[in-house]
Design goal:
The complex is a heterodimer of chains A (114) and B (115). Chain A is mainly beta and 114 residues long. Chain A has no helices and 12 strands. In chain B, the strands form 2 sheets. In chain B, strands 2, 4, 5, 6, 9, 10 and 11 form a 7-stranded mixed beta sheet that branches. In chain B, strands 1-3-8-7 form a 4-stranded antiparallel beta sheet, with no helix packed on it. In chain B, strand 5 and strand 6 form a beta hairpin. The chains are: A mainly beta (114), B mainly beta (115). The interface between A and B is medium-sized, with 25 and 32 residues.
Amino acid sequence: AQSVTQLDSQVPVFEEAPVELRCNYSSSVSVYLFWYVQYPNQGLQLLLKYLSGSTLVKGINGFEAEFNKSQTSFHLRKPSVHISDTAEYFCAVSRGGSQGNLIFGKGTKLSVKP
Amino acid sequence: DGGITQSPKYLFRKEGQNVTLSCEQNLNHDAMYWYRQDPGQGLRLIYYSQIVNDFQKGDIAEGYSVSREKKESFPLTVTSAQKNPTAFYLCASSIVGASFHSPLHFGNGTRLTVT
């Protein structure tokens, strides 16, 4: 069975500093991995996705993630954060079989301070 | 603009009452999903539907019911059998339900409070 672990529930960081949000997964089948962002009282928006090919995936708003099969990780990074990046971030893995839905981690709240 | 509309944004009910949450999409997506979000718990799948007149239970279907009479609509009923109904409910859709990598498009959610 697939599962996702987000290692940090909260990450405080100062504006213009780099940030890494950690995600580990377990899966017995080929994986498709996603990062979503949620701003307060809103739905989720797709940041980026890994389906195949290059292990470094670039997304919107300057975020990128690296798929590491040996470490079973898919960490999200940004070299310089802005106040507007304050939000909750969710890592997700696709389920196996015929289902096209996702299993989500518990989320990491990124708080960017001035 | 295409998107997913969830209504109402906030909903208050007394314990013991059934309540129906609306979800409408004009993206022409085949698959639709209902997730429940609780603080610190991430998102958990309640029900999903890959085609009209068909739906499957997710991980936490007990106390919930759905229907899919039209491609555009996937309402969720929270019944009195749901023991902890207070939560943030998110509806989502995707292009092809059987695809492993079709990203989800989300509505802005309904916050249900039951007292």
